[in-house]
Amino acid sequence: xxxxxxxxxxxxxxxxxxxxxxxxxxxxQSFSEExxxxxxxxxxxxxxxxxxxxxxxxxxxxxxxxxAKILAEYGLQSVTNRSYTNGKDKLAIEAFEMKYVSGSYGxxxxxxxxxxxxxREYFNGRYLIHISAPSAEIAENLMSELQKxxxxxxxxxxxxxxxxxxxxxxxxxxxxxGNEAVSQISAISDLKEVIDFTGGTHAAVAEYNNGSGKMSxxxxxxxxxxxxxxxLARIQQHFSSLPLEEQKKRILRRVGNYAVEAxxxxxxxxxxxxxxxxxxxxxxxxxxxxxxxxxLQFRPPDPVSIRxxxxxxxxxxxxxxxxxxLVLGAVLTGVxxxxxxxxxxxTQRRKLGLDETFSDxxxxxxxxxxxxxxxxxxxxxxxLGKNE
Length: 388
Description:
Elements: H1 10-22, H2 33-36, E1 43-44, E2 48-50, E3 55-58, H3 68-73, E4 76-85, E5 90-98, H4 101-111, E6 119-124, E7 127-132, H5 136-146, E8 174-176, H6 179-183, E9 202-210, E10 213-221, H7 225-241, H8 244-247, E11 251-255, E12 258-263, H9 268-275, H10 303-351, H11 370-374
Antiparallel strand pairs: 1-2, 2-4, 3-4, 4-5, 5-7, 6-7, 8-9, 9-10, 10-12, 11-12
Helix pairs in contact: 1-10
């Protein structure tokens, strides 16, 4: 039996698979740190479409803004803004790019209590996202939708977490990295020229219920015992220069490399108890040229390695996904094509009156001996009878 040679489809399938995998797909519209570096997306939350182009301004071009000094203090690099609509309402999105994650986190803590009802903010990596919507409900829903984007694995400043939780007013803590922020917090504004933020000094402040009123507690961390000694001496000198009545409303203590001051104290005993809960959290720094020099049990997670692992996993899943689709498509195409060809040939044979005779074996070349053996017998004699 001689058969026709069937072409090898494996190279074709492999080329199609490679083309599918290498073809750039539509980029996911998200508010991750990587996508924000390319600008604000054209569509968000599947219903809000951009009506203006994404506009990016560098820090040098917004020096006339009312909060330009605060933005500069927290390390502003640029601001990207864009307007959106869902057909009925309009809203505006601003993405503040900061130099460090601590800057976006600090700006978020500093501004969150001063936002209007229809405004919301959250931070992701080095970006602070500001939403101005027609209503508080829309702003809250949109922020919840945007926060579903997985945040980057980053370390935020731990200093605000060292403030005691007892009697603390929720969302009142602020992370401070410079004197401009101190000057705009009324309870501690007199310390704006007292605290020296050079050398990595930073601070955290929060409000507490104390007696019949509210008091503020500022926690200043210095990076060495010498800095702590000099810094506390400056604060003590300022404390001593205050009127006696004002001194009675304040408590100043040193805890390790921390300087702790409570302001507007109405219940000194409760304030002393609260300050006593603050413990100096010493940090260990490992010397070495690479992260591998740190013992494994103390090694922090590497954001780059985690991101690469996630991207590799996504690529593998996508590859098997497309392979599965191609295999399924090949099977379905074969079934439908083969079935269609089979029924088309049967229809053609019926039209020619050949439906009751032998088929041509699918187009194969075959050795036909029935005419030779049966001679001129009619076609009915060539058919096998029942059970034969």
